Amino acid sequence: MRNQSLPDLPRRILMGPGPSDVHPRVLAALARPTIGHLDPEFVALMDDIKALLRYAFRTENALTIPVSAPGSAGMETCFVNLIEPGERVIVCANGVFGGRMKENVERCGAQAIMVQDEWGKAVDPAKVSAALKGNANVKALAFVHAETSTGVQSDAGALCKLARAAGVLTIVDTVTSLGGIPVETDAWGADAVYSGTQKCLSCPPGLSPVTFSTQAVDAIKKRKTKVQSWFLDLSLVMNYWTGQGGTRTYHHTAPVNALYGLHEALLMLREEGLEASWKRHGEMHAALVAGFEAMGLKMKVEPALRLPQLNAVEVPAGVDEAAVRRQLLASFNLEVGAGLGAWAGKVWRVGLMGQSASPVHVLTCLAAFESALQAGGAKINAGKAQAAARSRLGLA
Ligand SMILES: *Cc1c(COP(=O)(O)O)cnc(C)c1O
Fold first, then answer.
1. What is the number of structural domains in the chain?
2. 335 and 254 in one domain?
3. What is the largest CA-CA distance in the chain?
4. Tens digits of per-residue pLDDT, 205-236?
5. 3-state secondary structure of 264
6. Together in a domain, 80 and 176
7. Helix (H, G, I), strand (E, B) or coil at 86
8. Which residues form ligand 1's pocket by a CB distance below 6 Å?
9. Ligand 1 centroid to 142 CA: how many Å?
10. Which residue puts its alpha carbon closest to atom 8 of ligand 1?
11. CA–CA separation, 356 vs 336, rounded Å?
12. What is the DSSP letter of 281?
């Protein structure tokens, strides 16, 4: 082992599927003095964080808190609290994360009724409607709003509407969408929504904002069985996060400094404004795509379904996908993502999330790709990408 404090870590440019670049304001907040998690000052901070999360999720839900663990724990929180053994859940899968939802359902002792769509396609509301009509006694519909494995968005509003009409609760994954594209918890009528901090909120990984509708809270209160996870049992966590007038009771020690960071990142989101943040993600995406296409590369997903914050770029024939990523990291400190599952070796996943959705990121990324592709012997249209992206960015 190296007998020293942290070695000089490289300064990476994070443009993968998360984490994204963290702003110095957030890093500075993380380094502030640790105080007790029941300190009145910290309790006030918890209230501020809940209010800021309601802003980000566009909800009035009282039960809106950050779970003290990464996005996967937010996912698990939704499933273990809402689903009881023997129940049935319709799970939509159009990429990696829908498959994880199925795992969660089955580990709750429940049955997952799968609605499958191809990688690169959105969840098909017609198939969901048929599944809701064709199956009785369904407790919940679960789907991923922004599939990070493919860079595809699904119509969350339409899917929630179908579920509400059928009297079925919804569990919605917004880990990659929150802050990057509209997440309209209340307008959609979504019941249990979870997210993560390290994607478009640009915080370090490790926290998972969640929000629950009154219908979801009622369903939790009506449970016949105890939640299988002690740590994620919201009936216990709620007393800690929502206790009134200083009556918060100890459940676990909150990750105090991580929450300072989340607070600062959410403040920055509110300063910019959600709508402005969505617009920025869209503009950076348009510029990045213009640059890649000018280079002669192809986007994997059809335009109408593309997530601005996660861009799946096809690896040209004969190019070694991993070698290009290694070169990007070694020569430019640039991290992009590899393809997963069915798309392994076939795409790069280029993230434009939160702080990483900036003109500097777009232009740097295009220049680095151009260089790495040329070094790897790929036939590309050299010297065109910067101008194409700059023109999209309005930088003549
Ligand atoms: C990243 C991600 C998760 C998991 O979040 P972690 O913080 O890695 O646990 C879940 N769902 C989606 C869609 C994601 O992109």
1. 2
2. no
3. 66
4. 999 999 999 999 999 999 999 999 999 999 98
5. helix
6. yes
7. coil
8. 18, 70-72, 75, 97, 144, 148, 173, 175-176, 196, 198, 205
9. 15
10. 71
11. 11
12. H
